[in-house]
């Protein structure tokens, strides 16, 4: 007998020993209103002291027991059964452990959507000897919290007397860092291929490789992207350009400085205020009065 009682308590059930309500109708309505929460409760319904009153004893599978009396005002048995189910569902909801800790937000292990950016700027390189070169840059990338992927296009221009060098660089790399206030501070590794075109009394061209190792600082404000980088440019191999009377040398390691300004992609949008409207009134029937 004790085993049967324990099984009933575990599965949850509604047992009605009163003619005021119907057990099956009460059970169906309680399932609709309380859902799976009702499965943890075993409920006994008996007659109360008044003709339209019932007394309910709710036993939780965890050992709690709650008793409530309800005065049902509906006219038919079906309506009173639904009325009782609404009251029982409210009691079950109120008996949820109030000291239970709210579900904490899980750590965001998923990768967030990146912030895209596109910027134009200028770069300046110098070595030893100080054969300076410079040019325009077009750079873009996608930034996550600690990592960026960066793509770069840059022009190359240098000159000494009649010897002139023009070229273009294309490359891609990565930057690693993090936010410091409104700034993103990190370091960048950017391998590049460069095509150089030499003009003197004759013409020549060639392809070399460089790798830019630079500290990177970026500021994003109101959708505008500002960037500054400084570091070293490693040439593999070093470049020596000889003209009829002059020479230009781009050594193995050169100092590089770059600045840029651009836009966030997609553009940053400000949240618009929702238009004010009239609140619509909602009517919810009140549960029957309960007496403990």
Question: What do these coordinates show?
Answer:
The chain has 292 residues and is mostly beta strands. It folds into two domains: 2-95, Double Stranded RNA Binding Domain (2-Layer Sandwich); 115-265, Beta Barrel (Porin). The chain is built from three helices and 15 strands. It has helices at 2-11, 23-34, 77-94, and strands at residues 13-17, 41-47, 53-60, 65-71, 115-126, 133-143, 147-160, 163-180, 183-199, 203-221, 224-236, 239-242, 247-250, 253-265, 290-291. The strands form three sheets. Strands 5-6-7-8-9-10-11-14 form an eight-stranded antiparallel beta barrel. The protein has a five-stranded mixed beta sheet with strand order 1-2-3-4-15. A two-stranded antiparallel ribbon has the order 12-13. Helix 2 (23-34) links the parallel strand 1 (13-17) and strand 2 (41-47). Helix 2 crosses helix 3 (77-94). The longest helix is centred in the N-terminal third of the chain and has 18 residues, at 77-94. The model is unreliable at 1-11, 105-110, 271-275 and 277-285 (pLDDT under 50).
